[in-house]
Automatic annotation (TrEMBL):
This is NISCH protein. It is found in: Cytoplasm. The keyword Cytoplasm applies. The gene is Nisch_1. Pfam families: PH_NISCH_C, PH_PLEKHM2. Its main location: cytoplasm. InterPro entries: PH_domain-containing_M2, PH_NISCH_C, PH_PLEKHM2. The keyword Cytoplasm applies.
Amino acid sequence: YPSEFLTQKITEDNQIPLHVNVSASLQYVAGLKGNALIEFFHNNIAEVENEELRHLMWSSVLFYKTPDVEAMACVLLSTKAIYFLLDDTLICVHEHQSDFWTQENSDCENSSFHLSCCFVLKLNDLQSVNVGLFDQYFRIAGPSADHIVTCLTRDSYNTHAFIQQLMAVLSLLARTPSPEPVDKDFYSEFGNKNTGKMDNYELIHSSRVKFIYPNEEEIGDLTFLVAEKMDGLTNLQSLNILLYVLAFQVNPVEGPASNCSLLQPKTLILTSSDLFLFDEDYISYPLPEFAKEPPKKDKYQLADGRRIRDLDRVLMGYQTYPQALTFVFDDVQNQDLMQNLTLDHFGE
């Protein structure tokens, strides 16, 4: 350790996405290559001398305690813990809002010394991993609200690579085996199935960490929700979700009037007749076991919806990933003249 292959792989993965602006401290980390990166991990981040860095990934993250703040993080997976190396501005912005981030000397603006805070989730505290629809994101959950983090990879390949590495690392953990299952009789085995809701697919790892994948019902619920937003004009049987992707909407407001970020995270859903943008809650669902009440917001909130037949043209940028698409719709909205004529002339 580290093997030449591992050093090369971690160096290749150490790239901040092009659309993200980060502080000087994280840019410094992204500039490290090869053994310098491994040494940086051992000198500044690792908590135990004999732990090994196994995987590195740059991803947007959300914390359960601050669900409205998406921040870029360098996610480091070792044989002992998952480390989230975060921008120091995240602490400054949210100190007044929550005691989740605490820092002694928070003179962020005037300091020429750039800090990064590191959030640590020990593998021994890990209880479950929820993989989002189409592997666009995953949520890591520990024993309390402080231990729940969602990684918005927006990329099925990155999600798959991280989950694979996590399973491999968890296999090294020595945990006491689960107690032998108690033999159930026929009635208790089949008597509790009347909830009417199918559980998600669960894979219980040998380390007893649950890996939970979405089932067909999640797509069914989403299809029903989309049909509701289409004013009931469509037949649910014929409605198919063709595409579900986590994207960003470029905020059209310019100048100092806009306090919000230029890129607004959105869930884009395409059906055969409509294009929808939803604000999705990626961190609160499914509800953690300790949650006393449901979240204040629904999982999906409609932000915008347009009919494909009103689409005039699609403009494509020529920059590298992430690709920018501009959808131009006709001004006349929801004016279906033929339908109205039919009603006037032939309806009662």
